[in-house]
Amino acid sequence: MVSLGRSTCRSEGLFFRMPTLTRFLVIMLVLGGLVFSGMLALAYLVEPTSREMTVTIPANRLQPRR
Is position 63 within any domain? Predict the structure, then answer.
């Protein structure tokens, strides 16, 4: 008896009856959605702290070149 990708066992769920490419795409979409929602949460919920910054510039860089 040839099985064409369909499960004959009723105990298997819908996820295991999906073709491999469809299952892969669904998993990638779910993971991408989780990453995207995490990035949005970080962008909207986390406030950056402002600090003063001092950078020392060598004197030879301040002299005009001739």
Answer: no
